[in-house]
Design brief:
This protein has 550 residues and is of the alpha/beta class. It is built from 16 helices and 16 strands. It has four domains: 1-40, no CATH class; 41-214 and 359-450, Alkaline Phosphatase, subunit A; 224-335, no CATH class; 456-549, Arylsulfatase, C-terminal domain (2-Layer Sandwich). The chain has helices at 10-29, 70-77, 92-101, 105-108, 124-130, 180-195, 245-249, 254-257, 268-273, 282-294, 297-317, 321-356, 388-391, 418-425, 512-529, 533-549, and strands at 45-51, 80-82, 85-86, 134-140, 152-156, 166-169, 172-175, 202-207, 363-369, 395-398, 407-409, 413-414, 454-458, 470-474, 478-483, 489-494. It has a ten-stranded mixed sheet, sandwiched between helices. Helix 6 packs parallel to helix 12. The longest helix is centred in the middle third of the chain and has 36 residues, at 321-356.
Length: 550
């Protein structure tokens, strides 16, 4: 169980004890009825906002030069910003399963986007129900099985669509007209306003599809980011010198693997006319599905007004080589950032509702993403690697009176820590088998000794984007990665001298002692969490059998 002593953190411990005792006392005095608000310190509500593939590089609270995100930034200004928050497996479904279970992928059974989540296992939402919380899940679920442990849920099937998306609830599937980010917010506010038991504290998972590929923009301002050239990362044209086969062979380069049609919104006809063969096929199908099957005429007209001139200019210029890569990067960023603008605007809507209804300061709000994302660094889009832009995720937390306003934390934290933290906030017991630990000791002070190393294990290979299987650890200064299956390669990075991870020093004799210490620490961390190279080989066999059977 993850507790902290009263000597170390007395204010929080006393507050949690009072919350539990007074709640029990109220129930004894008035069976079947809640205590009046002024008779007890009510337990706080909790909202966990999760976007999909939102890079910390695209949040102005983290210093982004790409976009201003005032509503997300408000959580940092009035709460905490975690600068060293990491995931354990940088891919959508596994990350979500980790959030719900407090366990790494090898333990919760969801290693890739093919596995189905076992909703019968112990989950955060189920434990919160048992602690007396009303629980709800709205937006992106992406776990294949039906949500469990929720009093209310209304979710997108699989990845969901940006325009006029389908939603699934206990009442079945229906199509909802509008833009997905607006709709998810509408559903969340409607539940908060009229759908919940107002006599109970609540836990709300408010999960956005955006800014997931293919980055279709909101129609109220689809060309907001077209007015100025967006800054390029220094490694946009990376040639992967200094790293091994894994970086060179991954299929997520903007130059070679980003679709002109679905990703850059060039019509299939125009892409074919310029003989861009690598960008045809399923890219076209994804483009046509969204454009032809889900949009209505007014939506198509609005987007054609934006994308028509872009198509004309693209055909006229007939770009190739590095010029094409730079053009594709700009198009990628224009749409990606537009989807984030909508997320930020809608978070503003949610904050306004909480404020106007007197719930803002009694609600703990987290903002995070299911993982990081490459915004052109190393020439990439997507995620999956343990390199920093994918491994690291944004994490902001607002809880006035309990966390330091404007605080910045450098401690190593991970998505395994969400469940223990929320349970402790609610005054509920944290199961002993959860891998994470509560972030409560970091609420008022930073402590770099909070965790000695962040752990990572990626399993989905062979698979889309061809990122090889690997595991590793990151300390405050160093990162050790082992790529396995069809290769056996190690990489070591000194993040102090090489923060962009451009050159592995694994074979450098001057780092021999560091390599030895990191290798020993990796073995210790794997033993701590019940993972191992032997278990990795077992899962590899199982996963390959599943792929063969499909």
């Amino acid at each position: 169980m993850n507790n902290y002593g009263t000597e170390q953190f007395p204010k929080k411990q006393i507050w949690l004890a009072l919350a539990v005792v007074t709640t029990l006392a109220a129930c004894i005095e008035r069976p079947g009825a809640p205590a009046a608000v002024d008779e007890q310190p009510s337990r706080p509500n909790v909202i966990l906002i999760m976007s999909d593939d939102h890079a910390y590089q695209a949040i102005s609270a983290y210093g982004s030069e790409l976009i201003e995100t005032p509503n997300i930034d408000r959580l940092a200004t009035e709460g905490l910003r975690f600068d060293h928050a990491f995931v354990g497996n940088s891919i959508c479904s596994p990350s979500r399963a980790t959030l719900l279970t407090g366990k790494f992928s090898h333990a919760n059974g969801l290693r890739n986007n093919i596995n189905v989540f076992d909703g019968s296992q112990t989950t955060l939402q189920g434990l919160m129900q048992g602690a007396g919380y009303e629980t709800a899940m709205v937006g992106k679920w992406h776990l294949k099985s039906e949500p469990t442990g929720f009093d209310y849920w209304d979710v997108l099937p699989d990845q969901g669509e940006y325009y006029n998306p389908d939603f699934v609830s206990v009442d079945g599937k229906r199509r909802v007209e509008g833009y997905v980010t607006d709709i998810i917010t509408d559903l969340a506010i409607r539940w908060l306003d009229t759908g919940r038991n107002a006599e109970k504290p609540f836990l709300l998972f408010y999960h956005h599809k955006a800014p997931h590929r293919e980055w279709w923009p909101p129609l109220d301002n689809p060309d907001e980011f077209h007015a100025r050239p967006l800054p390029e990362p220094e490694s946009l044209l990376d040639d992967y010198t200094g790293r091994g086969r894994a970086a060179r062979e991954a299929e997520m380069r903007i130059s070679d693997h980003m679709g002109l049609t679905n990703d850059n919104k060039i019509t299939p006809e125009n892409a074919a006319a310029l003989d861009h063969e690598p960008f045809l096929g399923w890219y076209d199908d994804a483009y046509r599905r969204q454009f032809d099957e889900y949009m209505n005429d007014a939506q198509r007209d609005a987007l054609n007004a934006v994308y028509g001139p872009i198509n004309d200019d693209f055909v006229a210029r007939d770009l190739r080589g590095d010029d094409l890569t730079r053009w594709k990067y700009q198009r990628y960023m224009q749409d990606y950032l537009a989807t984030i603008r909508s997320v930020d605007d809608n978070i503003g809507r949610l904050l306004s509702w909480l404020e106007s209804n007197g719930q803002l300061d009694n609600t703990v709000i987290f903002y995070t993403s299911d993982q990081g994302f490459y915004l052109g660094e190393h020439g990439w889009f997507d995620k999956r690697f343990m390199y920093e832009e994918s491994f690291r995720t944004p994490l902001l937390m607002r809880w006035p009176g309990h966390v330091e306003a404007g605080g910045v934390r450098k401690a190593l934290v991970q998505n395994i820590d969400f469940a223990p933290t929320i349970l402790e906030i609610a005054g509920a017991a944290v199961p002993d088998d959860m891998h994470g630990k509560s972030l409560a000791p970091l609420f008022e002070v930073d402590d770099k000794a909070f965790r000695d190393a962040a752990y990572y294990h990626y399993f989905e290979y062979p698979g889309i984007h061809a990122v090889k299987r690997h595991y590793g650890i990151r300390t405050q200064r160093y990162k050790l990665i082992h790529f396995y299956y069809d290769i056996d390669e190690w990489e070591l990075y000194d993040l102090q001298s090489d923060p962009s991870e451009m050159r592995s020093v694994y074979g450098d004799p001057s780092y021999a002692d560091v390599r030895q210490r990191m290798t020993a620490l990796l073995a210790d961390v794997q033993a701590r969490y019940g993972d191992s190279p032997e278990l990795a080989r077992e899962f590899l066999k199982i996963d390959l059998e599943e792929l063969t059977a499909q």
